[in-house]
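Input (Purine nucleoside phosphoramidase):
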Amino acid sequence: MAEETIFSKIIRREIPADIIYQDDLVTAFRDISPQAPTHILIIPNVLIPTVNDITEDHESALGRLFTVAAKIAKDEGIAEDGYRLIMNCNRHSGQEVFHIHMHLVGGRPLGPLLAK
Ligand code: 5GP
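Output:
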């Protein structure tokens, strides 16, 4: 069994978070340390530690991440200008929380995809 992270507590509303969307499959909340005017994390309610742990059983929740991302981007008013969706995996990416999460960042020009 994978070890729970702080994100499981956020999903169960056991600790405070600015949750902006939740359904049976996913939860979305504002990042505690925003890197852009809009910085929202969208996560599956089921614990999947990294992208390497994804199986076909997760496909409905992972598809929902994208439909919810598109809805939130529209609600935040950043859909037309554009935004970036990021999912880190393991050490080289800098993943810090081992419950997969899609970063939705936007609200300003974001610059090149990768630091040099
Ligand atoms: P990673 O580097 O794993 O892709 O991103 C983890 C993200 O989770 C970071 O952007 C970090 O600011 C955010 N984060 C970590 N702990 C918390 C928390 O307790 N609440 C919220 N809202 N965001 C968190």
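The first strand starts at residue 19 and ends at 22.
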